[in-house]
Amino acid sequence: MISVTLDHVGKQFGSAKGVEDVHIEVKPGEFFTFLGPSGCGKTTTLRMIAGFYYPSSGRILFGDQNVTNLPPNKRNTGMVFQNYALFPHMTVYENVAFGLQVRRQSKPEIAQKVERALKQVHLDGYGTRRIDQLSGGQQQRVALARALVIEPQILLLDEPLSNLDAKLREETRLEIKRLQMELGITTIYVTHDQAEAMSMSDRIMVMQGGVVQQIGSPQDIYNRPVNRFVASFIGETNLWEGIVERVEGNEAYVRISPDLVLCGLVHQASNDQVLKVGVSVTLSIRPESVTEHKAGETGQGNIVTGKVIISEFTGVSVNYITQVGDASLKAMFINQGHTLRERGEQISFHIPKESIFFVG
Fold first, then answer.
1. In whole angstroms, what is the distance from residue 223 CA to residue 231 CA?
2. pLDDT at residue 253 above 90?
Protein backbone atom coordinates (compact mmCIF):
# COMPACT_ATOMS: atom_id res chain seq x y z
CA MET A 1 0.00 0.00 0.00
CA ILE A 2 1.18 3.49 -0.83
CA SER A 3 0.05 7.07 -0.22
CA VAL A 4 -0.69 9.67 -2.92
CA THR A 5 0.10 13.32 -2.25
CA LEU A 6 -0.98 16.26 -4.39
CA ASP A 7 1.16 19.15 -3.22
CA HIS A 8 -0.66 22.35 -4.28
CA VAL A 9 -1.31 20.99 -7.76
CA GLY A 10 -2.83 23.16 -10.47
CA LYS A 11 -3.56 22.77 -14.17
CA GLN A 12 -4.02 25.43 -16.84
CA PHE A 13 -5.27 24.79 -20.38
CA GLY A 14 -4.01 27.89 -22.15
CA SER A 15 -5.80 30.77 -20.46
CA ALA A 16 -8.48 28.49 -19.02
CA LYS A 17 -8.20 27.24 -15.45
CA GLY A 18 -8.68 23.47 -15.09
CA VAL A 19 -7.73 22.86 -11.47
CA GLU A 20 -6.47 25.24 -8.81
CA ASP A 21 -4.27 24.49 -5.79
CA VAL A 22 -5.36 20.94 -4.93
CA HIS A 23 -3.58 19.88 -1.73
CA ILE A 24 -4.44 16.41 -0.41
CA GLU A 25 -2.84 13.26 0.93
CA VAL A 26 -4.58 9.98 0.14
CA LYS A 27 -3.59 7.49 2.81
CA PRO A 28 -2.24 4.01 2.02
CA GLY A 29 -5.13 1.63 1.36
CA GLU A 30 -7.71 4.43 1.45
CA PHE A 31 -10.76 4.65 -0.81
CA PHE A 32 -10.74 8.33 -1.73
CA THR A 33 -13.37 9.89 -4.00
CA PHE A 34 -13.35 13.05 -6.12
CA LEU A 35 -16.97 14.23 -6.23
CA GLY A 36 -18.54 17.09 -8.12
CA PRO A 37 -20.62 18.14 -11.13
CA SER A 38 -19.44 17.88 -14.73
CA GLY A 39 -16.58 20.25 -15.51
CA CYS A 40 -15.51 20.72 -11.88
CA GLY A 41 -11.95 19.39 -12.42
CA LYS A 42 -12.21 15.94 -10.87
CA THR A 43 -11.24 13.97 -14.01
CA THR A 44 -8.46 16.46 -14.79
CA THR A 45 -7.05 15.82 -11.31
CA LEU A 46 -7.29 12.06 -11.78
CA ARG A 47 -5.55 12.27 -15.15
CA MET A 48 -2.68 14.19 -13.57
CA ILE A 49 -2.27 11.38 -11.04
CA ALA A 50 -2.29 8.83 -13.88
CA GLY A 51 0.25 10.83 -15.87
CA PHE A 52 -1.96 11.68 -18.85
CA TYR A 53 -1.70 15.38 -17.94
CA TYR A 54 1.29 17.06 -16.35
CA PRO A 55 0.55 19.72 -13.70
CA SER A 56 1.11 23.39 -14.46
CA SER A 57 2.10 23.85 -10.82
CA GLY A 58 2.75 21.74 -7.74
CA ARG A 59 4.01 18.17 -7.25
CA ILE A 60 2.57 14.66 -7.22
CA LEU A 61 4.14 12.07 -4.95
CA PHE A 62 3.54 8.34 -4.60
CA GLY A 63 4.86 7.67 -1.13
CA ASP A 64 8.16 9.61 -1.08
CA GLN A 65 8.70 9.35 -4.84
CA ASN A 66 8.12 12.47 -6.93
CA VAL A 67 6.24 11.24 -10.02
CA THR A 68 5.19 14.67 -11.32
CA ASN A 69 7.02 14.29 -14.64
CA LEU A 70 6.95 10.50 -15.00
CA PRO A 71 5.02 9.07 -17.99
CA PRO A 72 1.99 6.87 -17.27
CA ASN A 73 3.81 3.57 -17.92
CA LYS A 74 6.34 4.39 -15.18
CA ARG A 75 3.78 5.06 -12.43
CA ASN A 76 2.42 1.55 -11.76
CA THR A 77 -1.20 2.63 -11.64
CA GLY A 78 -4.24 0.71 -12.89
CA MET A 79 -6.87 2.80 -14.67
CA VAL A 80 -10.53 2.03 -15.35
CA PHE A 81 -12.04 4.47 -17.84
CA GLN A 82 -15.65 5.65 -18.11
CA ASN A 83 -16.08 3.96 -21.51
CA TYR A 84 -13.98 0.93 -20.38
CA ALA A 85 -11.57 1.36 -23.39
CA LEU A 86 -11.58 -2.37 -24.17
CA PHE A 87 -10.18 -3.74 -27.43
CA PRO A 88 -13.23 -5.03 -29.36
CA HIS A 89 -11.18 -7.29 -31.66
CA MET A 90 -9.66 -9.16 -28.68
CA THR A 91 -11.13 -11.80 -26.40
CA VAL A 92 -11.66 -11.23 -22.70
CA TYR A 93 -8.41 -13.11 -21.99
CA GLU A 94 -6.45 -11.04 -24.52
CA ASN A 95 -7.79 -7.77 -23.13
CA VAL A 96 -6.81 -8.65 -19.57
CA ALA A 97 -3.42 -10.04 -20.65
CA PHE A 98 -2.47 -7.01 -22.73
CA GLY A 99 -0.75 -5.04 -19.98
CA LEU A 100 1.27 -8.08 -18.90
CA GLN A 101 2.38 -8.73 -22.48
CA VAL A 102 3.58 -5.14 -22.79
CA ARG A 103 5.64 -5.80 -19.66
CA ARG A 104 7.11 -8.88 -21.42
CA GLN A 105 6.07 -11.38 -18.78
CA SER A 106 6.21 -15.09 -19.61
CA LYS A 107 3.18 -16.92 -21.02
CA PRO A 108 2.76 -19.20 -17.97
CA GLU A 109 2.95 -16.19 -15.65
CA ILE A 110 0.46 -14.26 -17.78
CA ALA A 111 -1.97 -17.20 -17.82
CA GLN A 112 -1.80 -17.54 -14.04
CA LYS A 113 -2.34 -13.83 -13.39
CA VAL A 114 -5.17 -13.49 -15.90
CA GLU A 115 -6.98 -16.48 -14.43
CA ARG A 116 -6.63 -15.00 -10.95
CA ALA A 117 -7.83 -11.57 -12.08
CA LEU A 118 -10.89 -12.99 -13.84
CA LYS A 119 -11.73 -15.02 -10.76
CA GLN A 120 -11.49 -11.88 -8.61
CA VAL A 121 -14.17 -10.17 -10.71
CA HIS A 122 -16.28 -13.36 -11.05
CA LEU A 123 -15.57 -13.84 -14.76
CA ASP A 124 -13.69 -17.14 -14.61
CA GLY A 125 -14.69 -19.17 -17.66
CA TYR A 126 -15.26 -16.07 -19.81
CA GLY A 127 -11.74 -15.84 -21.24
CA THR A 128 -12.60 -16.97 -24.78
CA ARG A 129 -15.60 -14.68 -25.21
CA ARG A 130 -15.51 -11.63 -27.45
CA ILE A 131 -16.21 -8.23 -25.92
CA ASP A 132 -19.42 -7.82 -27.96
CA GLN A 133 -20.76 -11.00 -26.35
CA LEU A 134 -20.71 -9.40 -22.89
CA SER A 135 -23.22 -7.24 -21.06
CA GLY A 136 -22.28 -3.74 -19.93
CA GLY A 137 -21.68 -4.97 -16.40
CA GLN A 138 -19.43 -7.78 -17.62
CA GLN A 139 -17.45 -5.37 -19.79
CA GLN A 140 -16.95 -3.15 -16.78
CA ARG A 141 -15.58 -6.10 -14.81
CA VAL A 142 -13.20 -6.96 -17.67
CA ALA A 143 -11.89 -3.39 -17.49
CA LEU A 144 -11.46 -3.77 -13.74
CA ALA A 145 -9.63 -7.11 -14.16
CA ARG A 146 -7.31 -5.53 -16.75
CA ALA A 147 -6.47 -2.75 -14.30
CA LEU A 148 -5.85 -5.16 -11.40
CA VAL A 149 -3.89 -7.84 -13.26
CA ILE A 150 -0.75 -5.70 -13.48
CA GLU A 151 -0.74 -5.52 -9.66
CA PRO A 152 -0.75 -1.71 -9.48
CA GLN A 153 0.12 0.23 -6.37
CA ILE A 154 -2.80 2.57 -7.01
CA LEU A 155 -6.19 1.95 -8.63
CA LEU A 156 -7.78 4.87 -10.49
CA LEU A 157 -11.44 4.76 -11.56
CA ASP A 158 -13.02 7.47 -13.72
CA GLU A 159 -16.83 7.27 -13.41
CA PRO A 160 -16.77 3.51 -14.11
CA LEU A 161 -20.47 2.93 -13.38
CA SER A 162 -22.04 5.76 -15.35
CA ASN A 163 -22.96 3.54 -18.34
CA LEU A 164 -24.80 0.93 -16.24
CA ASP A 165 -28.46 0.78 -15.28
CA ALA A 166 -29.48 1.39 -11.66
CA LYS A 167 -29.52 -2.25 -10.54
CA LEU A 168 -26.17 -3.06 -12.16
CA ARG A 169 -24.65 0.11 -10.71
CA GLU A 170 -25.56 -0.99 -7.21
CA GLU A 171 -24.24 -4.53 -7.73
CA THR A 172 -20.99 -3.36 -9.32
CA ARG A 173 -20.51 -0.68 -6.67
CA LEU A 174 -20.54 -3.37 -3.99
CA GLU A 175 -18.19 -5.52 -6.06
CA ILE A 176 -15.63 -2.72 -6.44
CA LYS A 177 -15.73 -1.96 -2.74
CA ARG A 178 -15.37 -5.66 -1.87
CA LEU A 179 -12.32 -6.00 -4.11
CA GLN A 180 -10.74 -2.83 -2.78
CA MET A 181 -11.13 -4.00 0.81
CA GLU A 182 -9.81 -7.49 0.03
CA LEU A 183 -6.77 -6.21 -1.86
CA GLY A 184 -6.14 -3.23 0.41
CA ILE A 185 -5.16 -1.17 -2.63
CA THR A 186 -5.05 2.63 -2.51
CA THR A 187 -8.02 3.67 -4.66
CA ILE A 188 -9.02 7.03 -6.13
CA TYR A 189 -12.51 7.17 -7.58
CA VAL A 190 -14.17 9.88 -9.66
CA THR A 191 -17.95 10.32 -9.73
CA HIS A 192 -20.73 12.88 -9.89
CA ASP A 193 -23.07 10.45 -8.11
CA GLN A 194 -23.43 11.32 -4.44
CA ALA A 195 -24.81 7.89 -3.48
CA GLU A 196 -21.72 6.20 -4.92
CA ALA A 197 -19.40 8.57 -3.12
CA MET A 198 -21.20 8.35 0.22
CA SER A 199 -21.51 4.55 0.25
CA MET A 200 -18.04 3.62 -1.01
CA SER A 201 -15.60 6.20 0.30
CA ASP A 202 -13.40 6.54 3.33
CA ARG A 203 -13.04 10.22 2.47
CA ILE A 204 -14.47 12.53 -0.18
CA MET A 205 -13.11 15.63 -1.87
CA VAL A 206 -15.92 17.84 -3.18
CA MET A 207 -14.93 20.07 -6.13
CA GLN A 208 -16.58 22.91 -8.01
CA GLY A 209 -15.10 25.16 -10.68
CA GLY A 210 -11.67 23.54 -10.35
CA VAL A 211 -11.49 24.40 -6.66
CA VAL A 212 -11.66 22.05 -3.67
CA GLN A 213 -14.71 22.92 -1.58
CA GLN A 214 -14.43 20.40 1.26
CA ILE A 215 -12.53 17.24 2.22
CA GLY A 216 -13.83 14.84 4.84
CA SER A 217 -15.55 11.60 5.68
CA PRO A 218 -19.01 10.99 4.18
CA GLN A 219 -20.51 11.84 7.58
CA ASP A 220 -18.59 15.13 7.78
CA ILE A 221 -19.47 16.13 4.24
CA TYR A 222 -23.16 15.39 4.73
CA ASN A 223 -23.69 16.55 8.30
CA ARG A 224 -21.25 19.46 8.38
CA PRO A 225 -21.15 21.12 4.93
CA VAL A 226 -18.84 24.13 4.90
CA ASN A 227 -20.75 26.18 2.32
CA ARG A 228 -23.96 26.46 0.32
CA PHE A 229 -22.61 24.50 -2.63
CA VAL A 230 -21.67 21.44 -0.57
CA ALA A 231 -24.91 21.57 1.41
CA SER A 232 -27.06 21.67 -1.73
CA PHE A 233 -24.97 19.29 -3.87
CA ILE A 234 -24.77 16.48 -1.30
CA GLY A 235 -28.27 15.12 -0.83
CA GLU A 236 -31.22 17.45 -0.32
CA THR A 237 -31.38 20.35 2.05
CA ASN A 238 -33.43 23.42 2.94
CA LEU A 239 -31.42 26.64 2.74
CA TRP A 240 -33.00 29.49 4.71
CA GLU A 241 -31.61 33.01 5.06
CA GLY A 242 -31.75 34.93 8.32
CA ILE A 243 -30.19 37.52 10.62
CA VAL A 244 -28.60 36.63 13.95
CA GLU A 245 -30.82 38.29 16.56
CA ARG A 246 -29.03 37.18 19.70
CA VAL A 247 -26.43 34.70 20.95
CA GLU A 248 -26.84 33.04 24.35
CA GLY A 249 -24.03 30.70 25.33
CA ASN A 250 -23.86 27.99 22.68
CA GLU A 251 -27.16 28.96 21.07
CA ALA A 252 -27.72 31.42 18.23
CA TYR A 253 -31.22 32.79 17.57
CA VAL A 254 -31.80 33.68 13.92
CA ARG A 255 -34.76 35.68 12.63
CA ILE A 256 -36.03 34.12 9.41
CA SER A 257 -39.12 36.33 9.04
CA PRO A 258 -41.01 38.86 11.19
CA ASP A 259 -42.84 36.06 13.01
CA LEU A 260 -40.24 33.24 12.91
CA VAL A 261 -37.03 32.84 14.93
CA LEU A 262 -35.05 29.60 14.89
CA CYS A 263 -32.42 28.48 17.40
CA GLY A 264 -29.27 26.66 16.28
CA LEU A 265 -26.00 25.68 17.94
CA VAL A 266 -23.06 28.05 17.54
CA HIS A 267 -20.50 25.25 17.13
CA GLN A 268 -22.38 24.07 14.01
CA ALA A 269 -21.27 27.11 12.05
CA SER A 270 -18.69 26.74 9.28
CA ASN A 271 -15.09 27.02 10.44
CA ASP A 272 -14.64 30.59 9.22
CA GLN A 273 -17.99 31.88 10.46
CA VAL A 274 -18.46 33.98 13.57
CA LEU A 275 -22.09 34.28 14.64
CA LYS A 276 -22.61 37.81 15.92
CA VAL A 277 -25.76 39.88 16.35
CA GLY A 278 -26.77 41.44 13.03
CA VAL A 279 -24.81 39.04 10.83
CA SER A 280 -26.58 37.48 7.83
CA VAL A 281 -26.42 33.68 7.85
CA THR A 282 -27.64 30.73 5.80
CA LEU A 283 -29.23 27.80 7.63
CA SER A 284 -28.99 24.28 6.18
CA ILE A 285 -31.75 21.92 7.37
CA ARG A 286 -31.87 18.36 6.04
CA PRO A 287 -35.41 17.12 5.21
CA GLU A 288 -34.98 13.91 7.22
CA SER A 289 -34.05 15.85 10.39
CA VAL A 290 -37.46 17.54 10.52
CA THR A 291 -40.11 15.84 12.68
CA GLU A 292 -43.86 16.31 12.87
CA HIS A 293 -45.14 18.44 15.74
CA LYS A 294 -48.50 17.25 16.99
CA ALA A 295 -51.08 19.38 18.76
CA GLY A 296 -50.64 19.37 22.51
CA GLU A 297 -46.91 18.56 22.50
CA THR A 298 -44.95 20.91 24.75
CA GLY A 299 -41.34 21.63 25.57
CA GLN A 300 -40.22 21.96 21.97
CA GLY A 301 -38.82 25.05 20.32
CA ASN A 302 -38.34 25.72 16.61
CA ILE A 303 -41.94 24.93 15.69
CA VAL A 304 -43.04 25.98 12.20
CA THR A 305 -46.35 25.49 10.42
CA GLY A 306 -46.69 25.17 6.68
CA LYS A 307 -49.19 24.44 3.94
CA VAL A 308 -48.66 21.23 1.97
CA ILE A 309 -47.80 21.99 -1.67
CA ILE A 310 -46.72 18.47 -2.67
CA SER A 311 -47.03 15.20 -0.76
CA GLU A 312 -45.31 12.06 -2.01
CA PHE A 313 -45.58 8.49 -0.76
CA THR A 314 -42.62 6.31 -1.85
CA GLY A 315 -43.28 3.26 0.32
CA VAL A 316 -40.13 3.75 2.39
CA SER A 317 -40.87 7.38 3.16
CA VAL A 318 -43.41 10.18 3.07
CA ASN A 319 -42.04 13.37 1.51
CA TYR A 320 -43.50 16.86 1.72
CA ILE A 321 -42.82 20.19 0.12
CA THR A 322 -44.56 22.85 2.20
CA GLN A 323 -44.90 26.61 2.17
CA VAL A 324 -43.79 28.21 5.44
CA GLY A 325 -44.38 31.95 5.08
CA ASP A 326 -42.31 33.00 2.08
CA ALA A 327 -40.00 29.99 2.34
CA SER A 328 -40.24 26.42 1.12
CA LEU A 329 -39.59 23.54 3.52
CA LYS A 330 -38.90 19.95 2.44
CA ALA A 331 -39.53 17.24 5.03
CA MET A 332 -39.09 13.48 4.87
CA PHE A 333 -40.58 10.99 7.33
CA ILE A 334 -39.77 7.28 7.40
CA ASN A 335 -42.99 5.37 6.77
CA GLN A 336 -44.08 4.18 10.18
CA GLY A 337 -47.83 4.57 9.87
CA HIS A 338 -47.69 8.33 9.21
CA THR A 339 -51.03 9.76 8.01
CA LEU A 340 -50.42 11.32 4.60
CA ARG A 341 -51.43 14.98 4.41
CA GLU A 342 -53.06 16.20 1.22
CA ARG A 343 -52.31 19.29 -0.81
CA GLY A 344 -53.54 22.44 0.93
CA GLU A 345 -53.58 20.94 4.45
CA GLN A 346 -51.68 22.54 7.32
CA ILE A 347 -48.88 20.60 9.03
CA SER A 348 -46.59 21.62 11.89
CA PHE A 349 -42.92 20.66 12.14
CA HIS A 350 -40.28 20.62 14.83
CA ILE A 351 -36.78 21.53 13.62
CA PRO A 352 -34.29 20.29 16.26
CA LYS A 353 -31.60 22.86 16.98
CA GLU A 354 -29.00 20.08 16.62
CA SER A 355 -30.06 19.66 12.97
CA ILE A 356 -29.46 23.28 11.96
CA PHE A 357 -26.09 24.04 10.37
CA PHE A 358 -24.83 27.49 9.49
CA VAL A 359 -23.09 27.46 6.10
CA GLY A 360 -21.06 30.10 4.31
1. 9
2. yes
